[in-house]
Specification:
Layout (H helix, E strand, L loop, with lengths): L6 H13 L4 H13 L1 H20 L19
The structure holds zinc ion.
Length: 76
């Protein structure tokens, strides 16, 4: 059964889910993947923890920093 092409895709969905609701189909895929994939279960836990703690720690408060040396533009 090929739920995801990769755990990378699962991680993308997990990250996305923290910011916005996922499609029902994506939710299902992610849940199923997480049931089967121990690795992604741990990633999800870490992400959830980080997402809760980050605002308190200011980890994601990067907008105030003017990046003097921006990385090369990516075209995704
Ligand atoms: Zn996985």
């Amino acid at each position: 059964m090929n739920i995801f092409h990769s755990c990378e895709r699962a991680a993308e969905l997990m990250s996305q889910a923290l910011d916005e609701p996922l499609d029902l189909a994506d939710q299902m895929r992610l849940r199923i993947h997480l049931k089967m994939c121990r690795n992604c279960q741990e990633v999800e836990q870490q992400m959830a923890t980080l997402h809760i703690l980050a605002p308190q720690l200011g980890l994601f408060d990067l907008d105030k920093n003017d990046d003097p040396d921006p990385p090369m533009a990516k075209t995704d």
